[in-house]
Structures are given as C-alpha cells and as structure tokens.
Amino acid sequence: MPIRPVEIMEKHTYDPDKDGIIALAQLVVEVCNNTDTDTKVAAEAAARVVDVDAEETARIADVNAEETARINALNTHTELPAAHHTKTIDASELTAGILALARLAGITNTQIAVGAAIAYTKLALAGLIRNTDIKSDAAIAESKLALAQGTQALFNKIAADILTHKNLANAHHAQSHTLASHSSKAHTELTGVSANQHHTPAKAFFSEANDLSDVTETSVDDADVPYNETDYHTFLNIASGGCRFLGGLLLTANQYLDWITIQVDGGAEQTFTLLEWTHGASDYYFVLLPPIQADVSLLIRIYNNSGAWAHYSGKSWHRAL
After folding, report:
1. CA 108 to the chain's CA centroid
2. What is the rounded CA–CA span in Å between residue 166 and residue 155?
3. Residue-wise burial string across 23-57, b where 16 or more C-beta atoms lie within 10 A, e elsewhere
4. How many angstroms separate the CA atoms of 261 and 274, rounded?
5. Please, where in the chain does CATH 2.60.120.380 lie?
6. In whole angstroms, what is the distance from residue 247 CA to residue 292 CA?
7. In 3D, which of 287, 226, 227, 279 has the Cα closest to residue 261?
8. Each residue of 127-148: pLDDT tens digit?
C-alpha cells in the first residue's frame, strides 16, 4: 500500500490568514489613534510575530514537499522493481524450490543422463524412427508392422510363387538342360546316356568310317637304308598333333637290317628286332608294328648293321587326332 504524505509540522500560533490579519488591522487603527508608548511597542511586537510566522509557514511547506517526493520514490521502488534495477539470476544460485519448465531453455542430448530412462510415451518420435535406429536383434513381430495393402498383396503373391516353385518345378521354367550347364558330370548322376555322350570320346584304334576315310596309310617300297651301323631310315615321323597308330609291317630280304626303334611323345626310344622267315631257298626278315597311342608325336626308324646298302618295304596305318 502506498505511503500517504502527512503534515510533518504543526503551527503553534494563530493562523495569519485569518485571525492575524484582522488583529493586525485593529492594532494599526489603535496605534494611529493612540500615541501611547506601550501601544506602539505592542504593535511592533505583533508585526515581528507576523513575520516569524510567515517564515515558519514557508519552511514547513518546503519540508512537506521534500517528504512527499521521498514517499513517492518509495512507492515506485515497491510497486515497480524493474524500474530501478535489473537482476539476472543464474541457475547455480538456486538452492531450493521448483523451477518451472517454462524457465528452461537450451537443453540438448548431452544434458540428459544415460540413466534417465525416459519412457517412450514421453518422446514425440512419430515419423522420426529410421531403419538405423532399430537393432538387428529387435525381432519386431509382423503384427506390429502396418504394411500398406499393396505391400501385403505383393508378399502374398511371392509366397504363392514360392509354393508353386517348390511343388511344381516344371511350371516355372523350361526343362532344356544340357550337360554343359551342370557343374558336376559324375556318371552316377547320368541316366540313359553312353560314355561318349558326356565327355569327348577318345580316338579309337580302328576306323570309324565305312570307307576308311579317317585312316592314313604310310607306304615304303624298296627304300634304301645306309650301310653304317649308326645310319637309319625314317619310316614314319609325326612330329606334332599325335595319332592313334593302328599297326604296320616292315619286310626285308637283307639279314643286316637288324632292328627298329619307336619313340612315343618324345620319350626314350624302344628297340625291336626283326624276325626271320625262310621260304624255300630264300630268307626274309620282318617286324610287325603294334597299335600305339601317341598324344603328341610318333617316330619309327629302321637301322642297317651291314657294310652295304640294304633295302626294305613297309606299310602302316594311323588316325590323326
């Protein structure tokens, strides 16, 4: 409640505005009409009293004005504290009481303790949870997922297709497999096929054409063989590509053609001697050449172990690879 100004001082003489002026006028009249010395003295005293009273009245008015100003200043301080000072209070200065939430500002994630355990119901997360926020072992039940109707229909279609694939394998793709499409070609996995239908067949040691067009013939008629022990005549030389040698015959009437050598795929030379055959007064010498599998090369030579030239004839057959 505001303080009201009051009169600080009271006058202890008559009121000059009322009684004093009247009495002074009466005294002046009496003085004018009376020359008595005592009367004059009284008049002078009355005049001095009036002067003193006027000065006191003026001083009291000044005091009242000063006190009124101080009282008004006190009223301003009491009712409008913001008008005379500004006070900023830091949170560290508070030791008691409850601070209204409206007074809190600038709180970030770092100010929230790990153990705060804020309930989901207190969090406004609608539309803000992302895939990365869900743990891999969350095991969210399908009933908790609000799938759009189109998505659910797609899942149903996929499930139906999987069932069709499982129960009716031939209903989803054509069965036109070949051996080349299988990573494993074990014999136990094949039925109704022969050996040559699942791998490249090996060249047979016989002709597979009814006109023998797949067989190459080598023929030597009365060929000369040098007469030195280290000299020879090359009967057959397949340097590369290999072959299937089917067989052959070398024949001579010269007893000094003692042996032949056969070298397969660049390996060591194998030596074979000729057989003697007597017919009447004539002697003949020959060697039968066996079937040979040569994957790279084949070399057949006949050697002369005499001091003169010798002759021989021969014939063989092979299939190129």
Report:
1. 29
2. 17
3. ebeebeeebeeeeeeeeeeebeebeebbeebeeee
4. 11
5. 216-320
6. 8
7. 287
8. 778 778 888 888 888 777 776 6
CA distance 229 to 306: 7
**Two structure tokens written together for 289:** 């050449």
- Whole-angstrom Cα distance, residue 208 to residue 215? 9
Each residue of 200-231: pLDDT tens digit?
667 788 888 899 999 999 999 999 888 776 78
CA 321 to chain CA centroid, Å, is 55
Q: For residue 247, what are the β-bridge partners? A: 317
Distances (CA, A) of 160 to 145, 165, 275: 21, 9, 81
Token readout for 284 is 């003949």
CATH topology of domain 216-320: Jelly Rolls (2.60.120)
Rounded mean pLDDT of 161-180? 64
What is the pLDDT, as a whole number, of residue 263? 97
SS (H, E, C) the chain: CCCCCCCCCCCCCCCHHHHHHHHHHHHHHHHHHCCCHHHHHHHHHHHHHHHHHHHHHHHHHHHHHHHHHHHHHHHHHHHCHHHCCCCCCCHHHCCCCCCCHHHCCCCCHHHCCHHHCCCHHHCCCCCCCCHHHCCCCCCCCHHHCCCCHHHHHHHHHHHHHHHHHHHCHHHCCCCCCCHHHCCCCCHHHCCCCCHHHCCCCCCCCCCCCCCCCCCEEEEEEEEEECCCCCCEEEEEEECCCCEEEEEEEEEECCCCCCEEEEEECCCCCEEEECEEEEECCEEEEEEEECCEEECCCEEEEEECCCCCCEEEEEEEEEEEC
Instruction: Tell me how far apart the alpha carbons of residues 129 and 16 are, in angstroms, rounded to a whole number.
Output: 92
Output the six-digit token pair for 59. 């001083």
